[in-house]
Design brief:
It is built from eleven helices and 15 strands. The protein is an alpha/beta fold. It has two domains: about 240 residues, Aldolase class I (TIM Barrel); about 60 residues, no CATH class. It has an eight-stranded parallel beta barrel with strand order 1-2-3-4-5-6-7-14, surrounded by six helices. α1 packs parallel to α10.
Length: about 325
């Protein structure tokens, strides 16, 4: 089969350093957020102010790459101005697109900055062509990021039924895959991830030494207990170990990373416009290494899709970086229809 058009490789940037490494390693676009609650990765020490945002856009633009700004939480009723200001900052910095979930912010952006390209965030939970076309018709969105709940065939159905560009996640941490609809952390902390900007607010996380082991707690709730030689993940309720009917194990979701390298040619043949790498909260070194692997893989699949194979070196590199050092195809290979 002849070569096919490669999708954009969209990589995370939790800092200016990560942005530069992603661009240099081959990202077609980077996505980032501001240092406030408008951003669903609102961790201390990460993200961008207006000055670093402008510098990042200039760095990427000089190398022919794009910058996308994530405005992917929902505005608070008592202070929507912070979200309005984030839209204004995106427009002032001349980002290539705004990734947005809140329809009020879509309306504000379309009214105040009609030249600003809008992408529908995964936090909007749009899983059908009808839902995506609603956002396109009323708010002019030009790309939609699909939640990680669809099988491969369902992704294909969406692509056949909408003219909106489709972006899918290719690699990175998984949750219980109900983006935009999860209430687990609200139960434990009283803070919604759709408003507070993070699943497990750092202020609620505690690590406690007990009997030679380390306990991870979220607002007092025991999430996990790690022995001295066990790797420790960031404590989230969905990936905690709990006692259920006398057995202690991962009750909801096991720590693992999505890895779609094995189905990359299939996604490309379907017409997926962009592959997204998760991980704005991860280190610049992580971003650089994952970007390099995916750049090589996309280029190889585009040049010869029928001869594409996952190189052992790619698997080894991603395995070292995966959560729990495990890979999965997630919903793509699950039998539900």
């Amino acid at each position: 089969m002849a070569s096919i058009s490669p999708p954009e490789l969209v990589c995370p940037a939790g800092s200016l350093r990560a942005l530069k490494l992603a661009v240099d390693a081959g990202a077609d676009a980077v996505y980032l957020g501001l240092r406030n609650a408008t951003n669903a990765r609102n961790f201390a020490g990460l993200n961008f102010d207006d000055g670093s945002l402008r510098e990042g856009v200039a760095y990427a633009r000089a190398r022919g790459r794009k910058v996308l700004l994530a405005l992917n939480t929902y505005a608070r009723a008592n202070n929507p101005q912070a979200w309005h200001a984030a839209v204004d900052s995106a427009a002032a910095a001349d980002v290539d697109a705004l990734i947005v979930a809140d329809i009020a912010m879509m309306a504000y952006a379309r009214e105040r900055h009609p030249q600003l390209r809008l992408h529908l965030s995964v936090q909007a939970s749009a899983t059908t062509a009808e839902a995506i076309d609603f956002y396109q018709r009323h708010y002019g969105i030009q790309r939609a990021v699909l939640p990680r709940v669809l099988t491969l065939s369902q992704v294909g159905q969406v692509l056949r039924q909408t003219g909106v560009e489709i972006e899918v996640f290719g690699f990175g941490s998984l949750c219980v895959m109900v983006e935009g609809r999860c209430a687990l952390s609200s139960f434990a902390t009283g803070q919604s991830p759709n408003n507070a900007g993070v699943c497990s607010p750092p202020s609620a996380v505690r690590w406690q030494d007990r009997d030679g082991a380390v306990e991870a707690r979220l607002n007092g709730w025991l999430i996990d207990r790690y022995e001295p030689d066990e790797p420790r993940g960031y404590p989230t309720l969905c990936k905690g170990r709990f006692e259920v009917e006398g057995s202690t194990d991962y009750a909801i979701e096991e720590p693992t990373s999505l890895n779609t390298l094995a189905i990359l040619p299939d996604l490309m043949r379907m017409g997926v416009r962009a592959i997204k790498i998760e991980g704005r909260q991860r280190s610049p070194a992580y971003v650089e290494q994952v970007t390099r692997v995916w750049r090589q893989a996309i280029d190889a699949a585009a040049a010869a899709p029928d001869r594409f194979r996952v190189e052992p070196s790619w698997t080894a590199a991603l395995g070292h970086l995966a959560e729990g050092q495990q890979h999965t195809l997630g919903a793509y290979e699950r039998p539900w229809q």
